[in-house]
Amino acid sequence: MLLAFNKPYGVLCQFTDARGRPTLADYIGQKDVYAAGRLDRDSEGLLLLTDDGALAHRLTDPRHKQPKTYLAQVEGIVGDAALAALARGVVLNDGPTRPAHAEPAAEPGWLWPREPPVRYRKAIPTSWLTLTLREGRNRQVRRMTAAVGFPTLRLIRVRIGDYALDGLAPGETRVLR
Hints:
Elements: E1 2-7, E2 34-35, E3 44-50, H1 53-60, E4 68-75, H2 80-88, E5 91-92, E6 95-96, E7 101-105, E8 126-133, H3 140-147, E9 152-160, E10 163-164, E11 173-176
Parallel strand pairs: 3-9
Antiparallel strand pairs: 1-3, 1-11, 2-3, 4-8, 4-9, 5-6, 7-8, 9-10
């Protein structure tokens, strides 16, 4: 079984939490499925869950280089130099990243409101980027955008390999082939 789940902001990518924070168990009714990968608590979007260990391995092992595509709302207006740096790969404290596909994006019309909303600052504009990575380090997109001078305010994963969010509302699941 393979499930697509649109993970809401603030939900942990685990089924239990000793501190009582929202977890996958609050949304996923199927038994014996496990997250194939992770999203940070403050990230949103596509999470795949499966009961197939081999499939989970293919989806998450860095050797398979599954592309993961994100929409990132960042602080400031991103220019060509920052996009070129992201495309080349940037040096983080744990080493250089692989090159990423990076391009400006419009705020999507299908985007749901986030609770709580991203803080609005009248004097600081924001912009949107689409980033596709073929690796998955801890908080990598956030660290990459910060490294080029544009901190991430909102991060939504929209695709993993051949699997996409495709209109799935926050908190909803869909069985995939």
